[in-house]
Design brief:
This protein has 328 residues and is an alpha/beta fold. The chain has 14 helices and twelve strands. The strands form two sheets. A six-stranded parallel β-sheet has the order 2-1-3-4-5-11, sandwiched between helices. The chain has a six-stranded mixed β-sheet with strand order 7-6-8-9-10-12, with helices on both faces. Helix 5 links the parallel strand 1 and strand 2. It is elongated. The relative contact order is 0.13.
Length: 328
Amino acid sequence: MGKVTLKDLSKILNISVSTISKALNDSTEISTKTKKRVLKTVEIYGYQPNLIAKRLKSGKTFTFAVVIPSIQDSFFVRVLHGIEEAASITEYNLITCSTRNSYAKEVETIKSLSNGLVDAIIIAVSEETQVKQDFSHLSGLEDEMPLLIVDRDVKSINCDKVLVNDYEAVLNAVNGLISDGRKSIALVSCINNSSVGKLRTKGYINAISNTQDTIIIEGSEEHIEKELSSLIAKKNIDAIMALDQESSLAAYRVGKKKEVLTNKNIAIIGYASRVISEHLTPKLTTIDQHGKKVGITSAKLLLKRLDKFDGEFESVIVNSTVQKRFTS
């Protein structure tokens, strides 16, 4: 058989062209069993859709964009992997853009993408955008195309969202430290300007408000290392809650240098990729945000919207979990 067409697949599977097309686009109208059957047949016969003809006929690009703050952030890399995995079984292609946490770059990127280049956008807004609190470049965009906000909530924008339970995750982690008998827990953060950082800080404050005094260190890695070194030298803390990868590694370096990790004089819970945390000695207990799951969930929700779904906007929460290792 030469180049396989949708009509050929229709005869092979004994189902309509429309059903095959919907299955390839992960439509909610099609059962999981039928989708698997279609995908298996597509793989066997090497079907390749004629995207040019389809674009001309539908007026769609069959491409959506993923706009993230950084390609060096391990969480967003995992989110991107999840999005790519979910999109790979559909006819949609991806454009990935990094704003490098710049407001100006984000505005420029959204302006370019919304000019007919893509059919939809998934975005995690930059830290600088959150500091400015200027979301005018996103306002009204959801009326022109499907828009999904991931991880960093923008309450003023009404669209589909996939978020992480940052507040509850830190609240539960700190309560766990308290239950383990930790009497003086410090919080360290390099992301105090972001909505995510503020939610995590709130979780910490609410967890210890009735039992301990708050000890909060915010700023650069160098500042965190200096302040923690002083606190540990004075034996003023017995645990550290770190809110991001940079502050987690800063806390770990200080603990390692002061030789307070192996004997568990200091317990650390942080945010870091599994690759990093598992290869440290001693290993680091972390909060796993399940970035790949966040990405898969985001892509599926966006694809559902692209499949002419015009229901109410949805907000999905992906729960983080503590991956307990040796230092806490």
